Amino acid sequence: MNVRRRLISGSAIAAATALGLGTLSACSDSSAASGDTGKFDVVASFYPMAYLAERIGGDHVHVTTLTSPGQEPHDLEISPRQIGGLERSDAVLYLKGLQPSVDEAVDQSPVKTKIDAATLTTLEEHGTEVGGRAAEHEDEHADHDHEGENGKDPHIWLDPVRYAEVAQGVGRAFEKADPDHAADYKKNTAALVKQLDELNTDFKDGLAHTRSKVFITTHAAFGYLAERYGLTEEAISGLDPESEPSGARVRDLQELAKADGVSTVFYETLVSDKTAKTVAGDAGLTTDVLDPIEGITKKSRGQDYLAVQRANLKALQSALGSK
C-alpha cells in the first residue's frame, strides 16, 4: 500500500483518543438493547458498519451500535447487556480483527446471520509495496490490535470502492436473511453504491492533478485511500496519533516535506494537534484535520460518512495543491 510508515522508536501504545460512534437516525439505537422490535434487528460493531446497515436496511431494520459516540472502537469492551442484545438480534455486522471483544462475542453468539465485512472485500497487510514505494514497518508492533487480523489493515471503509464492495455484500446478506423485504434491500444497496461510485469519481478527478502526491498524518489510517488515488501517506506513527515524535523523526519529516512539496500535517478530529504542530514546527507547515471516520460527533465536518469524506477530499486538495 502507499504508506511509508516510519514508526517512532520505543514502545508505542494504543490510541486512547480517536473517533467513536456517531449519531444515527431514529431507527437506530446506540444502547445495544436489540431484539423484539418488530423489525429486522441488526447489531453493528461501529459507525462505518452501522451506516451501511441503516442505509441498506432503511425502514425495515432496527440498528444497534456497540461503540458509543466518541468511544475509541479499537478498545471497546462489550458489556453483559450488549452481549444479551447481540444474542437476541437477527444479524450482526462487524469487521473481524478490528475489535477483539466483538470478535469473541460474535463467535460465541447464536445469531444466525453473521456478516464479516472483512470477507466482502480485499484487505492488504501493512507494509505492502505499491507503485514502487515500500512502507517501513517494525516487527515489534506487528501484532498491535490497531491492525486487523493477521496484520491486515482494517481501514477499508476509507476507500469508497472497497466500501461499495462491502455494501453489496451486506445487501445480499440482508436479502437472504429477510427475504420479505429483499426488493427494498436491493434498491437501497444500489442507491448507496451509486453514491459511493460518485464519491470515488470525485476523489479520482479531484486528486488527479496536484502539486504534490505525499501527505503526512498522525494516524496511519489512509493507506487504502492513498493507494486508490495514487498518493503516498507518510504516517508519523502507525499506532498512537498523540505520541511525541523524536527530534530525529521531526527533522526527517521536515526534510521529506521540503523534498516532496508537503504543506500540511494532518491530525484527527478528536485528537490533540500537538504532535502535528510539533512536526510542522519551524518548517512553515500548516495543520488540518483528515478524518478516519471511525465515528461521527459534533466536531465532525459533516453529518454522515459521505459528507465527511467530501470534507476529507477538500482538505487533501488544499494540502496537495490541486490544479
Trace the largest sheet across and list its strands: 1-8-7-9-10
N-C termini distance? 25 Å
The share of residues in helices is 25-40%
- Average pLDDT confidence is 82
Task: Summarize the helix and strand pattern as letters.
Answer: EEEHEHEHEHHEHEHEHEH
Task: Give the C-alpha Rg.
Answer: 19 Å
Q: What's the overall geometry?
A: globular
- Portion in strands: 5-15%
Low-confidence stretches: 4-26, 30-34, 128-145
Main sheet: strands, sense, barrel: 5 strands, parallel
Number of helical segments? 9
Number of strands: 10
Tell me what the structure shows.
With 323 residues, the protein is an alpha/beta fold. Helix content is 36%, strand content 12%. It has helices at residues 47-57, 80-88, 100-108, 160-177, 182-206, 223-228, 247-260, 274-280, 305-320; strands spanning 3-5, 28-29, 40-44, 61-65, 91-94, 113-116, 214-217, 232-235, 264-267, 286-289. Mean pLDDT is 82; it is low at 4-26, 30-34 and 128-145.
Please provide a brief summary of the model.
The protein is α/β, with parallel strands linked by helices. Helices cover 36% and strands 12% of the residues.
Itemize the secondary structure elements and their pairings.
Elements: E1 3-5, E2 28-29, E3 40-44, H1 47-57, E4 61-65, H2 80-88, E5 91-94, H3 100-108, E6 113-116, H4 160-177, H5 182-206, E7 214-217, H6 223-228, E8 232-235, H7 247-260, E9 264-267, H8 274-280, E10 286-289, H9 305-320
Parallel strand pairs: 1-8, 2-4, 3-4, 3-5, 5-6, 7-8, 7-9, 9-10
Helix pairs in contact: 1-4, 4-5, 5-9
